[in-house]
């Protein structure tokens, strides 16, 4: 499958859990240690975003993807993305605010941070735990992965 989706976000943003939810897998915590191409998603460790010397790994990986999903944990107040980071990618970048179910969630701050990161397209608000917003994102995922290559 060539129509992959790159998941990028800070450490613990919920990339792997969201992937499991969208693929109807059981939600099992597993720290991502390296780039994982084993599904329609390219999953990566949050360190690749949090440590600037790894930015190039994300940019390189995006060439194997049809779209980049920038995840921002709704419980996180500081922005893990550098300003206008989305403009470094030659693929469309959309935003996903994760963990909206959490009692400390502040989705507005997360959305604002994603806009500062240069995301102009749609921003989805989801909870992999409760399933909030997942159906809409799953529909979007299907539209991408069913495109002819
Ligand atoms: N409340 C809540 N917790 C979540 C949700 N999604 C993920 N988590 C929790 O957040 C933690 C990190 O989730 P991961 O999916 O491993 O995060 P990640 O972005 O893959 O992290 P790295 O692989 O370290 O980069 C886990 O303890 C998850 O259970 C959610 O929708 N709601
Ligand atoms: Mg992970």
From TrEMBL:
Pfam families: PduV-EutP. GO terms for molecular function: ATP binding. InterPro entries: EutP_PduV, P-loop_NTPase. GO terms for biological process: biogenic amine metabolic process. It comes from the Bacteria. Keywords: Nucleotide-binding. Belongs to the EutP/PduV family. This is Ethanolamine utilization protein EutP.
């Amino acid at each position: 499958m060539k129509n992959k989706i790159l998941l990028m976000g800070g450490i613990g943003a919920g990339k792997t859990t969201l992937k499991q939810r969208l693929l109807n897998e059981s939600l099992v915590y597993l720290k991502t240690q390296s780039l994982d191409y084993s599904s329609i998603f390219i999953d990566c460790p949050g360190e690749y975003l949090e440590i600037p010397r790894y930015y190039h790994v994300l940019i390189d990986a995006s060439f194997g993807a049809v779209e980049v999903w920038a995840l921002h944990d709704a419980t996180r107040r500081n922005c893990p993305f550098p300003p206008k980071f989305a403009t470094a990618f030659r693929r469309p970048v959309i935003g996903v605010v994760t963990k909206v179910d959490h009692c400390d969630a502040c989705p507005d701050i997360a959305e604002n941070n994603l806009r500062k990161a240069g995301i102009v397209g749609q921003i989805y608000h989801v909870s992999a735990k409760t399933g909030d917003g997942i159906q809409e994102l799953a529909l979007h995922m299907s539209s991408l992965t069913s495109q002819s290559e």
